Amino acid sequence: MHVYRYRSSNLLSQKGLLYDEWYFASKEELNDPIDMQSKFEFSGDWTRTLTSLWENDHEAKIAAAYLTKIGPVSYEQLIIDFHAHKEKIIERVFSNRHVSLMELSKLENSLEHLLALLNLYAPGSGYSISLSRTNSDMLMWSHYAASHTGFCLTYRPINGCLNQCPIRKKDSLAVATNHLSSVSAAFEIEDINYKDQLHPIDAFSLLPVIYTGYSFDSESSRLEYHKKIREQLLTKNKCWQYEQECRLMLRQPTKWISGCSAYNSLQRLFYYDFSQVTGIIFGARMSSQDKEAIRNIISHKMLDKYKNIQGGKTYVFDFLYQQAEICPSSRAVKIVDLDLYLMGSILKPGSAQYADRLDRWRRGEGMAIENGNFSYDPIL
After folding, report:
1. In whole angstroms, what is the distance from residue 49 CA to residue 59 CA?
2. DSSP readout, 24-78?
3. By three-state DSSP, how is residue 372 classified?
4. Nearest-5° angle of CA 192, CA 195, CA 200?
5. pLDDT in the model for residue 378
6. Rounded distance, CA 56 to CA 109, Å?
7. d(CA 1, CA 12)
8. Sign of dihedral through CA atoms 126, 130, 133, 139?
9. 303 by DSSP, 3-state: which?
10. d(Cα 313, Cα 373) in Å, to the nearest integer?
11. Which of 124, 183, 254, 342 qualifies as a FRET site for 38, CA 20 to 30 Å off?
12. Which segments in the chain show pLDDT lower than 70?
């Protein structure tokens, strides 16, 4: 039902809490060097691609034979090692004969044309925000909440999504001049899969069909192809399984449209809908000063939360404070329930209605408000 986001208690995290900030990280900013890395491999014959791309069929066939022989090779590795392969192809094309400067220049231009094509259609990875399905894992508190001195936010998804702030949402992002990429108001929560090996996807599928002849025989096969790509971006090695991770994904813009395929850091800063934050857990080692600072931020935001209810449909959930403790006997993290904030009142543990409202909170129940009308209809 709930998902969690571990945070340190530094000023940057407190600022993020105060202003409802999300930052979508790039692949290079993640702590796992192979995270969000798809596996596209060239393992087939290059002849059609190069004879379609180059004017000189003889040179194209020699280069194709070389590239075919070195396969299977990943898309990424081929680009990394391209200049070494380029030298070997030149040697094979001009072996045992004199070569003019013009011939050499033409072949080099053909090879650079191939490299430009590979760079233009290289697979993207996108950007992500990491969440977790667990709030009580010892390693998660150690690694992502500053050795238990930080806190953990509790989110309540609606229809499997976390939403942007309604009044600060981004509908599109500028990629380049005359190139905008649309952005959804709701981000789907997608679970990470854990396996140590990925089944390769045919890298020729990324290149234009005019150079490969690659096509899908049905709409279902095309959808299955894109599903496999998505699954690879959401797969990590089994050693990370303890994280029980799920993610919000921001798609990377397509490079071949304008030659650009990246968002800058400011573009990747979003604002979430605070109404879906339904609790916070204090770390076992969190200082009393940091707890007080967090409580002050939350109190301020809870007042604004009810003041800013708009005319459209809004969901209101109770807000629960919790405390993480380290159990001496079991040597495990234990989550203790504290104050429960309702709309206009606070329930303390042991008080009347506390147990009932806590059960409703655990089930993710909330109140829907629309045009001044209140209802307790089921919320998915």
Report:
1. 13
2. PEEGGGSSSTTTT---EEE-S--HHHHHHH-S-HHHHHHHHHHHHHH-SEEHHHH
3. coil
4. 100
5. 63
6. 12
7. 28
8. positive
9. helix
10. 9
11. 183
12. 306-312, 372, 375-378
Q: Which residues pair with 163 in a beta bridge?
A: 186
What pLDDT is recorded for position 229? 95
Amino acid code (one letter) for 174: A
> For residue 343, what is the enclosing H or E element?
none
> Which tokens hold the place of 209?
């069909």
Peptide bond connecting 208 to the previous residue in cis, omega within 30 degrees of 0: no
Q: pTM for the whole thing?
A: 0.91
Between CA 16 and CA 236 the distance in angstroms is 27
Name the helix (H) or strand (E) containing 13.
helix 11-18
Q: Which of 353, 362, 188, 170 is nearest to 266 (CA)?
A: 170
Rg of the chain (C-alpha set): 27
Instruction: Please check whether residue 194 is in contact with residue 240, taking contact to mean a CB–CB distance below 8 angstroms.
Output: yes
Please give the pLDDT value at position 313: 74
Strand 201-202, strand 40-42: pairing: parallel
pLDDT of residue 152: 98
CB-based contact 153:277 (threshold 8 Å): yes
Question: What is the per-residue pLDDT for 1?
Answer: 83
Rounded Cα–Cα distance for residues 25 and 375 (Å): 38
The confidence score (pLDDT) of residue 275 equals: 92
